[in-house]
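The authors assume throughout that readers already know how a fold can be written as discrete tokens. The format is easy to grasp once an entry is in front of the reader. For illustration, here is how one protein appears when written out as sequence plus structure tokens:
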Amino acid sequence: MLKPVIFKANDVRGITEGDAPEWDEAGAYALGGALVEVFGLVGRTLVLGRDMRLSGPRLSAAFVEAVLDAGTDVVDVGMASTDELWFASGSLGLPGAMFTASHNPGVYNGVKFCHPGARPIDSAELVAIARRASAGPVPPAPLRGTRTERDVLGAYAAHLHSLVDLKGIRPLKVVADAGNGMAGHTLPAVFPTGPGAAPIEVVGLYTTPDGSFPNHPANPLVPENLLDARAAVREHGADLALVFDGDADRCFIIDERGEVVSPSAVTALIAAQELDRHPGSTVVVNKITSRSVAEVVAEHGGTTVVTKVGHTFVKAAMAEHDAVFGGEHSAHYYFREFWGADTGLLAALHVLALVGHGDAPLSELAAGYTRYAASGEINSEVADQAATVDAVAAAFAGRGEADRVDGLTVSGPDWWVNVRPSGTEPFLRLNVEARTEEAMAALRDDALAVIRA
């Protein structure tokens, strides 16, 4: 079973549990063979990982069987965060497949793919995989592949620490909310205790990986899912908090007051550091990222490239422009030193180094990078997404410049409104930014009045 709805813009993702599953083990088997055939992997090796989702063992096992039957070897890194799988692909020079549904509820599962060096696949390749998988299993190859297991967690943690200098930082207390996702697996390796470790005390929340998500959904884009970490910062007098999504490739950051630091401000903050280290470099942002990022990049002598929302689009732009860094409004952060791939923990280490090497609290450091009022991402279910986007375009006609680079964006001198279909969920997403809170609220309400009419 492989219903067409599971093939998204950037990956495969759909319901695997309950009365109306959208894909199953037979579908996973078909996907494995399709990947081998489309990527020409016969006689080669694929690296594979999975997150903590309950359906992960059975789906990934079926996928592996197909890959082996099709004549391809598998290096299985076991349970891993998505950025740990990117590390494995990059360090081993192998194409990769990661079983995860990121922030989606526990009934979902999916697969993210990459070429060797964690390079993204493109939409045409994903369409080719979908077509081949939907046509049925690939016939077995004359010579079956072999599967080996490999633990890369220690090497992953060592690589992150090689990129950020935490020597000599002041003692820090950090709340880390893993949301019962894969950050609970990676955090102990990245923040060890004992002699020689950085003086970072981690207050862990929900660090036991559990695909049923018993405490709160592992989706930090939803403000309610940040409440526990915000409260814990205040309770423990922490310097900041880190909140991860299910596969731990995203990281939201909360300051010492328990206030959320916008991912755009984090992007600007890290971009400034990276441009000071690599003058004249390029920074990639998506269409929803605050204008403050481009302003900061220009002030530090860099160039900004804007792309569509989604990790495959950003990673492709990172490679095309040899960008030093990239950031998205959803708290995905990309680094040239990490094969152009996204890693929430590396972004967190950069922020910890900045805070730890100075005396100022995070709120003070971030203040200079927050120059606009933002609505945050507002989701609405609509019957006809395309017609609704057109209706918003008509309502805003004449108020600013419009483009269709990613959904619809209408821009004025000091504001913009973007509405776009989700690539992973049945929502229309609205984002608004303006110079003042009042202007943002007015634009937001005008757009919502059309979207929810």
Q: What stands out?
A: The chain has four domains: 4-151, 155-261, 271-343+351-367, 373-451.
